[in-house]
Amino acid sequence: MTKNQIIYIQGEELTYDQFSAVVYDKAPIQLTQTAIEKIHSSRQFVKQLIDEEKTVYGVTTGFGKFSDVVIPPEQAYELQLNLIKSHACGVGEPLTEPVVRGMMLLRINALAKGYSGIRLSTLQTMIEMLNQEIHPIIPSQGSLGASGDLAPLSHMCLPLLGIGDVIHRGNRKPAQQALREIGAEPVRLEAKEGLALINGTQMMCSLSALSAIAAQNLLLAADIISAMTVEALEGITHAYHPILHQVRGQRGQMITAGNMLSLLEGSGYVTRPGEKRVQDPYSLRCIPQVHGASKDAFTYVAEVVEKEMNAATDNPLIFTEMSEVISGGNFHGQPLALACDFLTIAMSEIANISERRTERLVNPQLSGLPAFLTRHGGLHSGYMILQYVAASLVSENKTLSHPASVDSIPSSANQEDHVSMGSISAKKCWNILENVSKVLAIEYLCAAQALEFGRKTFGNGTKVAYDLLRQYLPPLDRDREGHQDIDIASKLIQNGALVSVVREKVDLMI
């Protein structure tokens, strides 16, 4: 998928690849004709409801606890404008550009389904903002995850109305100026539009989608790096025999065992039972069981998130084919909250077992290698303190792994008496993935350094991984600033370079 390839949006089939192309590569988006027709039809029905003076939540009434307050049609603009302004009360550091772009894309995709009653012109202005890289400044805190991400989405919508500042192609400027520069006018909201824009799960869903993309990359990187460690410690590959894993039948476990055998094929380092030892420790022997369980969790989470990426999550929803407006709770973030908590725990385990392998690499009593992987122990400390850093990060992850989805605080005068805390789950998940990448980077460094003490043939996949690191970082001969090594290794993991080069040689599965 090329950078300038148009992504067509119709609310039903947005994929992770398309999401990534828009969020990271700035691919432009455009509504399909089918979406346009559905949007027009939905808007016409809203006009009909107003003409017939029907009482409809959020169209002719107030919001939340004020749902029983009827608002006359002549105050529709003021009602919707006040909604956006009053709900734009988030706090904390601004969300990153990828999260903001993801929020905008996902809200556009949800509105394109034609169940929200928004005007086409309003949606087209948001599309133009996204395509022209006008990014709202959105505080990261303040969402309960039901009724959706109200505060963050309100901040997302302020610039659409010409209010506040934006980041436009890297420069901060007033929203009105940015709109003027792209030839757009601020939107004047009509009935239902404000609610349609902010009542949804798009902040937590954007973070969840970004996390799913990152997690897939880290799960494959973990297999590659652990295979290097198996080589460095002369591990026993018999533990990855396919029949062993088939009799258990867990999909992720079988896939991981296959990955390990593919990566280590041709290696002169690996051993057979009894050659060096009868069995390896769990952190080597149980790689398929541990990595595999996390892969299975990832598969579940990725499916939940992809459904939410294509979901209608505002309230009420308009079903024109039935001439029906249904008020419900699709904005409730519980599916994402549980999924993100699950992924958080699953990915924390990837870091936990990685740190244990790092300890085996640097500890001479466990590895048979020079202490802390330096030839000059005493005068030089080698990679001693890198294991400390890994231990610190996995400990932090254990705290972050406490599920947010089990918490709830009533809001809106107890009208909204159970909330998901999905935004907190999603943010924690993203933070943990950053830590996991650093822990894996430390194992990557230590495994490569440990292999400097051998003179044997690498496996098909491990050689590529070793060579990639050595393109950017020489072996550790004398002590140097460890944070620089970690930064180089983590970038090769996070940007997908490690997985990409290895996949050119080895068919890795997820």
UniProtKB/TrEMBL annotation:
GO terms for molecular function: histidine ammonia-lyase activity. GO terms for cellular component: cytoplasm. Its EC number is 4.3.1.3. It is found in: Cytoplasm. It catalyses: L-histidine = trans-urocanate + NH4(+). The keyword Transport does not apply. The modification 2,3-didehydroalanine (Ser) is found at residue 147. There is a cross-link at residues 146-148 (5-imidazolinone (Ala-Gly)). CDD domains: PAL-HAL. Pathway: Amino-acid degradation; L-histidine degradation into L-glutamate; N-formimidoyl-L-glutamate from L-histidine: step 1/3. SUPFAM superfamilies: L-aspartase-like. Keywords: Cytoplasm, Histidine metabolism, Lyase. Belongs to the PAL/histidase family. PANTHER family: HISTIDINE AMMONIA-LYASE (PTHR10362). This is Histidine ammonia-lyase.
